[in-house]
Amino acid sequence: MRKEKSIGLAFGLLILITGLFTGCKGSPAQKEPPVEDILKAVQEAYGEDYLPDTDLDEEMLSQIMGVNTDLIDSFAAQMPMISVHPDRVIIAKAAEGKGDELEEELIKVRTRLQEDELIYPINIAKTQACKVVQKGDYAALFLVGAVDDREDATEEEQLSFAEEEVQKAVDAFEGCF
């Protein structure tokens, strides 16, 4: 009897540890997953193609990205240190009942990013594919994915590639709930 309890306890501990190291992927859906777990799931969806490598603090999120941080309970946000890449990931849990307002804020950020006059031509399709998603009080902006280095691709092919890449983040986000 005692040996069975020990085995059961060890097995339970193993499942818990595995869940901690896998982010949302492979763990049961949660009602309110930590934003850090959602970010980890997004990062894992891309592997080496995940370019954002610099965490944004609250001041940067507000001043650089233009997000009203008064709406936010917690967040995880990153962008690349190299400015050639437009990639941005913002995952936030809004203050209770403020999810719709947070989504509106992120849509404004997406619009500003898409209308930026300083976009490198190679990044136009990626920027146009940027998505904002919401699930309850959680909202996220995804401008992320592999670089399409095909020189002979049409604008439509580049956009399609970028949309497929962004969808990986959307799927990872939705898989956390």
Task: Give a written overview of the molecule.
The protein is α+β, with helices and mostly antiparallel strands and 177 residues long. 45% of the residues lie in helices and 16% in strands. The chain has six helices and five strands; from the N terminus they run H-H-E-H-E-E-H-H-E-E-H. The protein has a five-stranded antiparallel beta sheet with strand order 1-2-3-5-4, sandwiched between helices. Helix 2 (35-46) packs across helix 6.
Structural class by helix and strand composition:
alpha+beta
**Helix coverage percent:** 40-55%
> What gyration radius follows from the Cα positions, in whole Å?
18 Å
What's the end-to-end separation, in Å?
37 Å
The count of β-strands is 5
Estimate the global geometry from the Cα principal axes.
Answer: globular
- Secondary structure tally, helices: 6
